[in-house]
Automatic annotation (TrEMBL):
This is Uncharacterized protein. The chain crosses the membrane at residues 87-106. PANTHER family: F-BOX PROTEIN-RELATED (PTHR33736), OS11G0155100 PROTEIN (PTHR33736:SF13). Keywords: Membrane, Transmembrane, Transmembrane helix. The lineage of its organism: Eukaryota, Viridiplantae, Streptophyta, Embryophyta, Tracheophyta. InterPro entries: AT3G44326-like. The keyword Transmembrane helix applies.
Length: 107
């Protein structure tokens, strides 16, 4: 997941800077931007827990390894889906071309 926070500042009053806009942008493991509702849910879970964990190095490595494994599995599923779609498009294109050619030769 990638997370970005954008803060827009406005004019100054009495030396105080005013915050005009705050934007939270989060992408999931596939690089798809989450919508506003999903962003708020992620933020709420993060704030709601409000705890800091002192994770030992081995546990961090294990969690990161699990994250990489899940990411690879998602990529493999995505590639399989794309290959199936490519095959289907090829078959449909060939079928349409064949029917078109048959219509030209028999009429």
């Amino acid at each position: 997941m990638l997370c970005g926070i954008i803060v827009g500042f406005g004019g100054c009053e009495n030396g105080d800077i005013q915050v005009k806009e705050v934007s939270l942008q989060i992408e999931d493991m596939d690089g798809i931007s989450l919508n506003g509702k999903d962003n708020l849910e992620v933020l709420q879970v993060g704030i709601g827990r409000g705890e800091r964990k002192n994770i030992v190095r081995e546990e961090r490595k294990e969690k990161y390894g699990e994250y990489l494994r899940m990411k690879r599995e998602r990529e493999v599923k995505k590639l399989r889906r794309e290959r199936r779609l490519d095959s289907l498009c090829g078959v449909m294109g060939t079928l349409v071309f064949t029917v078109f050619c048959m219509m030209l030769f028999y009429h």
